[in-house]
Specification:
- The protein has 28 helices and 102 strands.
- With 1886 residues, the chain is an alpha+beta fold.
- Helix 7 packs across helix 10.
- The longest helix is centred in the last third of the chain and has 34 residues.
- The two termini are 98 Å apart.
Length: 1886
């Protein structure tokens, strides 16, 4: 900022007056001039000028560019500032109300440097001046101290900068581009289709590059290669959208950067104008002491004026006809300083002779300057020389084209503006874009006045069109005229100067309007065209005067009006049209008469006011061509042709002027003259040109002058070169140069051979070999390539040569490979320097490598020779060269030398800092402002000059920075060092940035083992930022931004009303180059203030928060006041961005998982952003509402997933450093390169991500494979489940277990597929993880149930495949729910993480899943072993028949498959090993397919039933049914029951063994359809009894004295353990999902049936539960026909658990229950465990009357019809299905009146109706079982008319629920009245 400043001088100004109130106006004026913001102008010094008399105030300031151009920095360069202020001094004076004086000369303008050295003004600054105060401003100036230094600029060399270099020596222009040398550089003239600074771009083959298209042009790549520019609308020209032409109206000019060439330059351009005098170009200094050049038009000729500061010199070439004809003319200015030729003939610095050459149009400069006077008539170029003491031309001002600003300076020019056009401006052969100006004052793009106005149809009658200035003209044949040659011009006549045509008293009156017109052509400069005399004394004359047209109006010989067209010469031999118009104009009450004169059809116009004398007069005489004189002579005769004379009231009226009537004197008709070239009057080597009435001789190319002299005879070539005629060349000849000379005229000398340190051909240039990088000073003379010194090497692509440093003992020579640096090693020796052995225990000797057995050998590593050391001992050596300290290296007996420990080394640049740090730690020095300033300055210097740090360097720098930051954080106001030293903050940030470089991570890791390290440094920076924010206003600090490689510090005001000013850092205003990783920012909203009572304590208070929030009322008033009072100070924001701090901080994380969901491989993948805000008006609340928004740029975009917004919480108790936490922060959005976060507090923020490959690479094919395979598995699982559900007749516990297993597995796989990656929503992710946990547990639980069930099938004597499954359901669904619920309650945060929605293997919660699974697997393996052992026993044959062994094999394989699948799934989501993912996908697909094939396809029983279902067939009962009936009938009469624990038990004999296989057959199980229902008297119909369940026991009759636990028995708790019985009959489980019998939903549309009614514990009643129903399986398709059935055999019906109506019905209090009979001869067997309550035998039919009633009841059912009322259905309108009513005998019970007064019959009679509704659907039902077991219950209603049934089959064998075989015959069954029996309607399945 300071070095890019300028000083302006204000007249009549004092310091106090400037500060108040003019300082603000001055800043606004400067900002307006520079088109920048007011805040971008920095005034840092005001000082009275003591070198002059008067009140002159010097004001020094700098300014920031609004949009910094590349490479120009953030501030305006001082030269550009001077130019802008100089040009706009008037605007600055108007805005600032201050008189700005011209700039004073700086010391360099005195040219104190010798030869070509350049004087550089050096500004030094003194910050010690005292404060300057005014009424409102306290200002502390920084005084600039001017100095100078001399340096040799680019393009010059030599010990004293005495030699100029031709920088084209290296051939920098590519693709045959032509190099043009210039002072300090070169320019490349490119061939067509090539562009670029070095012609490196080929538009036909290369592609677009930035900047190739200028001025906003769009570069477009062509499809077939190459590119083109699409230019914006306007005067932009192809091919690169540059602007070459501009128009200059009057008082306009354009400004370019001034010429900085001091010793030679060339300027050329093309212009067009009609002005006789104009200013084309000016470049000069900013004050009256001018070094300047000015190119002007003076009297139509070019003139150059220049000055070196001493005298003025004028150079004026001459061009015949001048340059003000409106046509394009070129001009070239070449200025150079003649070199001072030394004694040896070589240039040795500049001389005092300055030469300027000006050439116009296509001029041979050498011929014009050297031989112009000799040959005559060739002066198109001129040369001027100026000699003085000053050697250089210092043009410090801007380059002005077309004029100069309206400034009070006395510019040394005669003209101040230009009207015309300019194009093709070139400086030193480099085209200048006319749109690349610095300032434009009124000029416009293009040149509309010089466009082509001609086309083929413009001119008529053979006329030729010529483009003129802003119009066109037609060269018409003689006799034609008009703008387009459309008019016939009568009477063309030739006047020879003595000719005249006159009319006396023509009949012409001067009317209004009145016209006079004619056409003429002439070569004469004067003469009379026409004169009209009106009245007695009025005359109007048109004449030629000095080659111009002139009009005179006289009255009484007094000149009334006159006008002259001075801008055009009319003696050019061309036809010109002249027209005069007399008109009147009303001016108020008066009338003015005006004569308008138009030349060449309006190309030139002028008007003049005349008196009132002429109008109305009659012409007396009219003369054309001359005026009559005495003696028949004429005066003022015209030489030329005149035609079309017209005088009258209209422009075309010619009737009043008849040439035939005029008096003619020596007038020749026509205008055809002889060709003057016929006389052959031109010299040799020329040709004659007819110029009408004259001729001109045009010399052939190569001939010049009046006599067309041969140029080669004059020999313009220099240095004894030969001139050769070449007509095709530009001037007709070329110069063939001798050796060592070159140039157009061989004027340049090529020095050969080049001296040492120079190269080139033909031009010598310097080698530019940097000897400090190991190169020789000399280079290749042909190519200029630098080469390394001896025993050095240069790596490929490197720019430095390094010494070989070959170890003398191990290498064979000192030389090395020129690219790799490999030294030639002896045998066994390795390493680039041959200083190592391939054996780590060998050392290098003179003979090669020798093994050292006693310890580690002598070795070279890390720049240190380590001595021979014993094993287990360390070696301590001095640190490498350039550092101090001790390095340690340990000798290991296993690995030899370990890596050197260089941590304790200190770089030499840090040695002084280390001493300062020790002094501070020992309290021998006290911290103060000076000490603080010194420390940061030394730190900046040390870190800036050190390339690689040691551990002590970083440690010392960090400790010193902590000292400084802690000290500064305790200061305030002007006690802050930053308020006293302008460089403090920058030095501080740059030092911090250096030690926080990513390369220092290993050093920080070691430091942080014992100290706070980066965490303490971060905290101190945060506290200092808070202090800085609080003191910005107190110290009058301006907002600033410091940009470094690893840090950005921004201090600014927060204006939330402007969104652009609420985001920091504001990268749009940062013009320094910074790494893209630092592109993170903070957006501050307008915070809502909260009261302390309502403050949310969700996040900790920021550590630096010092003020508590105020009340809500105060907040609201403050907010209103902020809007009403704009003077309320804005909050101060301090933002620090750390690029690599996230990688350097300790890897500590908040242990509270509710706060931070930590990924598996966490890494900070963004910059760390620290934010602080301070508000004087209203304190910022600790909990921000709304939150701040942080926009991050990702450091790595590949393999980074699962973003978590975090901040560094210093309060986390982890090693006193803190850790990362996510309290109050959340991810807002994310894309591939950026992440946005929102946080409700202010501290240091970052984004935590996981290192994962899941989102990249081969994830897409893996995702496709996974989704495909799991979907296939889901399909097969769903298909299996559907098919198992279809087999509703196959009522088997094993199949129910399979269905539950498939359902659990399907749910687990589905949830895994849909939700495993739903990590964006934490709540959804947690729910998914819990569901996965539960369903996985259920899967394995049902696997355990299956194994247990198979084991029971193989070991128990009874058929356990039918019965209750509550115990199984409790294990399969209940226990996983309990385990999952406990896990959720203990650790809900353990479910889900940023990686996946599942349990992590790194979390202890995984054992809540893995533990039970391992137990299940182990227990299942044990069960399988036991089951396999049991299958080999004496019942192996029966087991084989029941297919238990295949089920055992299937279950075992499925257990292994599912265990492997979900183990792989767990590993897949917890690991990046792709193999796990593919294995999981394959196993997932395999398990679904396996289950489908082994549960369905390979299961013969399933296949058979599926075949029957799909073919419509019904299953036939087994042949064993009849045998089973007889067996069970016989067993009914066995009196072998006993009473135990309130239970009646009945035993079966050995003859029942055969039931085992029969009951296990699928056909037998599918025949269980009917269920019994019993209800005690007095029970309400709306209250369900225990019979409503329709369940049966597993083992046979079970009677409870106390019914409280009767319904809780199941197949797993009631295992048979009687060793004396060979088999036990098992009843069908009503819990089986295969049962499809439905129960009606309600009793008479009342309350639904409950499955577990309450029972009276005092009511005990023994009874025989003969409430069994039977049904027939008919294969007759006529399912609508009713069946009449009767029992053939004596029924031995088992009691069922459901028949608990007696104990469920409340009894009267006075009723007593009869005692249950017992058998004293039979003692019950005592059992233990789960078998202790097992019932082995059904109770006997001890009551004889009961037996008789049963027989009588069966014999009474002879009715031909059975009445069956239709079911009541509130949900369906379909008709009731056909049914079969089966009346089963029951024991009657007394009737009890119900509460409603209605008496119900409870005689245990059951009416079971079976049938088919023909549609495959079951009728109205209520499911009273657990899973599909249903019974249609019909309440007692009035009887209905009987329904006649169809003829049933002859005999149907049916197996009852209790295992009783019933032979049902066709016949008539009598239905008793509804008071005697209870009817149960059951629908049969198909």
């Amino acid at each position: 900022m300071l070095t890019n400043s300028i000083t302006v001088r204000l007249e009549n100004m004092s310091q106090e007056r400037f500060l108040s109130p003019l300082l603000g106006l001055f800043v606004e004026g400067v900002a307006a001039v520079l088109s920048t913001k007011r805040e971008a102008v920095f005034v840092f010094n005001i000082q009275n000028d003591t070198d002059v008399q008067g009140s002159i105030l010097n004001v020094t300031f700098s300014a920031r560019q609004p949009h910094s151009a590349a490479g120009r920095g953030a501030f305006f360069p001082s030269e550009e500032l001077q130019e802008q202020i100089y040009l706009n001094r008037t605007l600055l004076r108007l805005i600032s109300s201050q008189e700005v004086l011209p700039f004073d000369d700086n010391i360099c303008l005195r040219e104190p440097c010798e030869n070509y050295m350049k004087c550089v003004s050096v500004l030094k600054f003194d910050s010690s001046p005292p404060f300057i105060s005014s009424d409102t401003v306290l200002f502390r100036p920084i005084h600039p101290i001017n100095g100078l230094r001399c340096r040799c600029p680019m393009g010059f060399t030599g010990e004293y900068c005495e030699t100029e270099i031709d920088l084209c020596f290296s051939g920098p222009c590519k693709n045959n581009g032509r190099c043009r040398s210039r002072e300090g550089g070169y320019s490349c003239e490119c061939q067509d289709d090539f562009t670029g600074d070095h012609c490196e771009l080929d538009t036909s083959s290369d592609r677009c590059v930035p900047g190739v298209c200028k001025n906003g042009g769009e570069c477009v790549n062509k499809a077939n290669g190459g590119f083109s520019c699409r230019c914006p609308h306007g005067e932009y020209e192809t091919p690169y959208c540059e602007m070459t032409t501009r128009s200059f109206p009057g008082h306009s000019f354009i400004t370019f950067r001034g010429l900085r060439q001091r010793f030679h330059f060339t300027i050329s351009f093309v212009f067009a104008t009609r002005e006789r005098n104009a200013l084309l170009l000016y470049n000069g200094r900013f004050n009256e002491k001018h070094d300047f050049i000015a190119l002007e038009i003076i009297d139509e000729q070019i003139q150059l004026t220049f000055s070196g500061g001493e005298t003025k010199t004028t150079v004026a070439p001459y061009v015949p006809g001048g340059v003000s004809d409106g046509q394009w003319h070129s001009v070239q200015l070449h200025y150079y300083n003649k070199p001072n030729i030394g004694r040896l003939g070589f240039p040795h610095g500049p001389s005092g002779e300055k030469v300027a050459v000006v050439a116009v149009d296509d001029c041979d400069i050498s011929m014009a300057i050297r031989f112009g006077k000799r040959i005559g008539n060739y002066s198109c170029a001129a040369q001027g020389t100026q000699t003085g003491q000053k050697k250089s031309l210092d043009l410090t001002g801007p380059l002005l084209l077309g004029g100069v600003p309206n400034l009070p300076e006395d510019f040394p020019v005669r003209n101040r503006d230009f009207v015309g056009c300019m194009r093709n401006l070139t400086i030193d052969s480099k085209p200048i874009d006319m749109d690349g100006f610095i300032a434009n004052n009124g000029t416009s793009a293009g040149c509309p006045a010089k466009k082509n106005f001609c086309n083929s149809e413009v001119c008529q009658n053979g006329g030729t069109c010529n483009s003129k200035w802003d119009t066109y003209s037609c060269d018409c044949p003689t006799g034609y005229g008009g703008k387009n040659c459309e008019q016939v011009m009568p009477s063309p006549q030739f006047y020879d100067g003595q000719a005249l045509v006159s009319w006396t008293e023509p009949d012409i009156t001067v009317a209004i309007p009145w016209y006079v017109g004619l056409m003429f052509r002439t070569r004469q400069s004067s003469g009379t065209l026409l004169q009209a005399n009106a009245g007695p004394a009025s005359t109007v004359s048109l004449m030629l005067s000095d080659r111009n047209v002139r009009l005179e109006v006289l009255h009484k010989h007094r000149l009334v009006a006159s006008m002259v067209f001075s801008q055009i010469r009319v003696n050019d031999g061309e036809w010109h049209h002249l027209q005069l118009e007399l008109s009147s104009v009303k001016d108020g009450n008066a009338i003015k008469y005006i004569i308008s004169l138009s030349l060449d059809y309006g190309m030139y116009k002028k008007s003049v006011v005349i008196g009132n004398d002429l109008p109305g007069l009659k012409l007396q005489t009219l003369h054309v061509g001359a005026l009559p004189g005495e003696d028949n002579r004429v005066q003022r005769g015209f030489v030329g042709c005149i035609q079309g004379v017209r005088v009258g009231e209209t422009p075309s009226s010619a009737s009043n002027v008849n040439m035939a009537l005029g008096m003619k004197t020596r007038v020749e008709e026509g205008c055809d003259l002889s060709d003057p070239c016929d006389s052959n009057i031109c010299p040799e080597n020329s040709h004659c040109s007819d110029d009408w009435t004259t001729h001109s001789c045009v010399c052939d190319p190569g001939y010049f002058g009046k006599d067309c002299v041969d140029a080669c005879k004059l020999n313009p070539c220099e240095h004894v070169s030969s001139c050769v005629r070449k007509p095709s060349s530009s001037h007709g000849y070329t110069c063939e140069c001798e050796e060592n000379y070159y140039g157009q005229y061989c004027e340049h000398v090529a020095k050969k051979p080049c001296a040492n340190g120079w190269w080139g051909d033909p031009v010598c240039g310097p080698c530019n070999c940097d000897t400090s990088k190991g190169f020789f000073k000399d280079c290749n003379k042909t190519t200029g390539e630098c080469r390394c010194k001896e025993n050095h090497y240069q790596p490929d692509g490197g720019d430095t040569c390094y010494p070989c440093d070959c170890f003398f003992l191990g290498s064979m020579s000192r030389t090395c490979h020129p690219q790799t640096g490999q030294c030639p090693c002896k045998g066994g020796v390795v390493g680039r320097q041959c200083n190592k052995c391939d054996n780590p225990f060998a050392e290098v000797t003179a003979t090669g490598c020798e093994v050292v057995y006693a310890g580690c050998p002598k070795a070279f590593d890390a720049g240190i020779w380590w001595p021979k050391t014993e094993f287990g001992r360390p070696a301590a050596m001095n640190c490498p060269k350039g550092s101090i300290g001790t390095a340690i290296r340990h000798c290991s007996d296993e690995h030899g030398w370990l890596a050197p420990e260089m941590f304790n080394c200190t770089t030499g640049t840090f040695s002084h800092l280390k001493k300062l740090n020790e002094d501070l730690r020992r309290n021998t020095s006290r911290m103060n402002n000076e000490y603080s300033k010194t420390i940061v300055r030394l730190l900046h210097s040390a870190t800036d000059s050190t390339q690689e740090y040691y551990g002590n360097d970083v440690k010392t720098a960090a400790q010193l920075l902590n000292h400084v930051l802690m000290y500064e954080s305790q200061q305030s106001g002007f006690d802050l060092t930053a308020a006293q030293n302008a460089d403090f903050n920058e030095n501080l940030v740059r030092a911090g940035s250096a030690i926080l470089d990513p390369n220092t991570k290993e050093l920080w890791d070691q430091i942080q083992k014992t100290e706070g390290g980066t965490a303490h440094l971060l905290r101190n920076f945060e506290e200092y930022a808070n202090t800085l924010a609080q003191n910005v206003r107190k110290t009058y600090l301006k907002p600033f931004t410091i940009v470094t490689e690893n840090m950005i510090l921004t201090v600014d005001y927060l204006d939330v009303t402007d969104p652009d000013r609420a985001t920091f850092p504001n990268f749009q205003e940062i013009h320094e180059t910074f790494p893209k990783e630092l592109g993170s920012s903070v957006h501050f909203p307008q915070f809502k203030q909260r009261t302390q009572a309502n403050r949310v304590d969700a996040t900790p208070d920021p550590p630096a928060q010092t003020e508590a929030p105020e009340g809500e009322d105060q907040t609201q008033s403050d907010r209103r006041r902020r809007h009403l009072e704009p003077s309320v100070p804005l909050p101060i924001v301090v933002v620090i961005v750390y690029k690599s701090l996230g990688q350097l901080l300790p890897e500590n994380y908040d242990p509270d998982r509710r706060t931070l969901r930590l990924p598996n491989r966490p890494v900070i993948n963004t910059a760390v952003v620290s934010a602080r805000i301070y508000s004087e008006d209203t304190p910022v609340p600790p909990v921000l509402d709304p939150p701040i928004t942080l926009q991050y740029t990702l450091l790595e975009t590949e393999e980074r997933t699962k973003p978590v917004c975090v901040y560094w919480d210093h309060s986390i108790p982890l090693g006193e450093t803190g850790g990362w936490s996510s309290k109050g922060c959340e991810v807002l959005n994310r894309n591939n390169t950026h992440i946005s976060c929102q946080c409700n507090h202010m501290t240091s923020f970052g984004v935590l991500m996981d290192i994962s490959k899941r989102e990249h690479g081969d994830v897409m094919p893996l995702k496709i494979v996974t989704y495909s395979t799991v979907s296939v598995s889901l399909f097969f699982l769903l298909l299996t489940f559907i098919l198992l559900c279809v087999l509703c007749r196959l009522r088997s516990n094993l199949h129910s277990i399979h269905k539950n297993l498939v359902a659990a597995l399907f749910c687990a796989a589905l949830v895994f597929l849909l939700g495993i990656n739903q990590t964006d929503n934490p709540f959804v992710c947690t729910v998914i993880a819990i569901l996965l946990h539960y369903f996985y547990m259920c899967t394995f639980a049902w696997m355990f149930v299956e194994g247990l069930h198979i084991y029971r099938m193989l070991t128990e004597m009874r058929n356990i495949n039918h019965g209750h499954m509550r115990f199984y359901y409790a294990i399969g669904w209940g226990i996983p729910a309990i385990i999952t619920g406990l896990a959720v309650g203990l650790d809900p945060q353990g479910y889900g993480n940023p990686d996946f929605c599942w349990l992590s293997v790194h979390d202890t919660l995984i054992w809540s899943f893995a533990g039970p699974i391992v137990v299940v697997v182990l227990v299942n393996i044990v069960i399988f072993i036991l089951a396999a052992k049991a299958s080999c026993g004496r019942r192996q044959k029966a087991a084989e028949n029941s297919r238990a062994i295949p089920a055992l094999r299937t279950a075992f394989i499925l257990l292994l498959l599912i265990s492997a699948t979900w183990m792989l799934g767990l590993l897949a989501v917890n690991s990046d090993v792709i193999l796990f993912h593919y294995l999981f996908a394959g196993f997932s697909c395999l398990q679904g397919v396996f289950i489908f094939f082994f549960f369905v396809v390979f299961n013969a029983e399933i296949r058979k039933n599926l075949k029957n279902v799909f073919t419509g067939k019904k299953n036939l009962p087994d042949e064993a049914s009849t045998a089973r009936a007889s067996l069970l009938t016989r067993s009914l009469n066995c009196n072998n029951t006993h009473h135990e624990d309130g239970l009646y038990r009945s035993g079966f004999g050995e003859s029942t063994v055969s039931l085992d296989s029969t009951l296990r057959s699928a056909k037998s199980r599918s025949s269980y359809l009917a269920y019994a229902l019993r209800e005690e008297a007095g029970q309400k119909p709306s209250v369900s009894s225990g019979t409503a369940k329709g369940h049966t026991d597993l083992d046979g009759p079970l009677f409870h004295r106390n019914g409280t636990k009767g319904d809780d028995s199941d197949s797993d708790s009631e295992l048979s353990g009687d060793e004396n019985s060979s088999s036990y009959a098992s009843s069908h489980s009503s819990d089986s999902e295969d049962d499809d019998i439905d129960i009606k939903p309600k009793w008479n549309n009342e309350r639904p049936i409950h499955s577990t009614p309450k029972a009276d514990s005092n009511h005990v009643k023994p009874y025989w539960p003969a409430e069994m129903t039977t049904a027939s399986d008919s294969e007759d398709p006529g399912g609508l026909d009713r069946l009449r059935v009767e029992t053939k055999a004596e029924l031995h019906s088992e009691n069922k658990l459901n028949h608990t109506g007696d104990r469920d019905t409340p009894q009267p209090k006075d009723s007593t229950a009869p005692s249950a009979p017992t058998n004293s001869n039979h003692q019950p067997e005592q059992r233990k465990g789960i078998l202790k309550n097992k019932i082995s035998y059904p109770p006997p039919l001890s009551d004889k009357n009961m037996k008789n009633r049963l027989r009588e009841k069966l014999s009474d059912y002879n009715s031909p019809t059975i009445t069956s009322p239709p079911p009541i259905n509130n949900n369906s309108s379909t008709s009731p299905p056909a049914s079969v009513n089966i009346m089963t005998p029951t024991s009657r019970t007394p009737s009890v009146t119900s509460e409603t007064g209605r008496t119900a019959n409870h005689d245990n009679s059951i009416v079971t109706t079976t049938g088919n509704n023909g549609t495959g659907h079951h009728g109205n039902s209520v499911n009273t079982g657990n899973h599909g077991n249903s019974t249609k219950i019909k309440p007692p209603i009035a009887p209905r008319p009987p329904i006649t049934l169809g003829q049933p089959p002859s005999a149907i064998y049916r197996e009852s629920n209790g295992g009783v075989a019933m032979h049902l015959k066709s016949g008539t069954v009598n239905g008793g009245n509804e008071s005697d029996s209870e009817k149960t309607q059951t629908s049969l399945p198909l």
